[in-house]
Amino acid sequence: MSQAPVTNQEVKPLLPASQPLPIKPPDVPPDKVEQDKKTEGKKPDTAASQQQAPALPKDIPKAEGVPEKPKVQVVHAHPPPEQQRSCVETEISVKDFEPDQTEVDFNHYRIGKISNLETLQAPTFICFRNNLIKKIENLHHLTTLKELELYDNLITKIENLDALVNLEILDVSFNRISVIENLGSLGKLKKLFLVNNRITKIQNLDKLVNLEMLELGSNRIRVIENLDNLKNLKQLFVGKNRISKLENLHQLESLEVLSIQSNRIVKLDGLQNNKKLIHLYMSHNGIEEVENLENNLMLETLDLAANRIKHLKNIGHLVNIEEFWFNDNQVDSFDELEVLRQLPKLVTVYLENNPIDKDPMYRRKIMMICPTVKQIDATMCR
After folding, report:
1. CATH topology of domain 1-32+220-382
2. pLDDT band at 76 (very low <50, low <70, confident <90, very high)
3. Threshold 0.90, pTM exceeds
């Protein structure tokens, strides 16, 4: 069964991300996307715990020979989300790693400051996930580093990375970053994850000429811009932002995956130069018409779920389509599906929550129109 990109809204399964597409995914994709913080800051409901059970009558004797049940204390492996940020900070100790380690994992150590890493000889991977780090610092001597994870911290600024010239993967998702900056020396960077920050503008990426994946899901971006130099970019995830127009993508001729779910787009346009596009995820927008895909002949996945489309047309030429996600639209006639007969590789369709799904013969009619389809919505049919 196909996997869909994970977004904050319920959509169908997607490719692995970043994010990813968001697209997650990571509209956030495929391979990085994503921690649930919905409980952060909530206070526990103590009303029930304040009510005391009535005392037993004193004249009822205890049963002889029956031992009292021991009191059980529940100990959580990690503090609950509402308490994580109030934990006492710890420091990195040289006892936490061996000098010759190439991969070092400080996941959930409650580290407040990056320090005491001078004895590391030639690390290639360091993970600082789920800590209390406020500043990127004291990494200048780790020039062999290829992957750095700073996911889920308290970082407000990208800085002090100039010496990490061999870095290929940088993840600073789930922080408090508002500006993309100070990345110019990372010429070998291939994957950059900036999910769930406070970024309002795509900028300062010109020198990342080897970048292949850019994950910007769940930010405050309004315009796709300043990507012209990213000639090698293959995956772009900008789901759950405030983007209203598909634009400035014409220079991304290597683009294979575009996830732009949960934005404010009303017109499908601007992809004429993206002839290598294989996966397009555009669910949860305001699109009313399928159009302007004449040059996207390599598309294998087309996600237009949760839009405002009533007529299904202009896709008969997309003969490589295998996955077509079109649920939660406004198709009210099975005649609209006739265009799907022209897609010889079609395997999966999502059409639920269109008016046609009220028909008791809904699944059977789709199977007759689409003889190659093996999955309708979330159910296998052949």
Report:
1. 3.80.10
2. very low
3. no
Average pLDDT on 212-229 reads: 98
Q: What is the mean pLDDT of residues 1-5?
A: 46
SS (H, E, C) the chain: CCCCCCCCCCCCCCCCCCCCCCCCCCCCCCCCCCCCCCCCCCCCCCCHHHCCCCCCCCCCCCCCCCCCCCCCCCCCCCCCHHHHCCCCCECCCHHHCCCCCCEEECCCCCECCCCCCCCCCCCCEEECCCCCCCCCCCCCCCCCCCEEECCCCCCCCCCCCCCCCCCCEEECCCCCCCCCCCCCCCCCCCEEECCCCCCCCCCCCCCCCCCCEEECCCCCCCCCCCCCCCCCCCEEECCCCCCCCCCCCCCCCCCCEEECCCCCCCCCCCCCCCCCCCEEECCCCCCCCCCCCCCCCCCCEEECCCCCCCCCCCCCCCCCCCEEECCCCCCCCHHHHHHHHHCCCCCEEECCCCHHHHCCCHHHHHHHHCCCCCEECCEECC
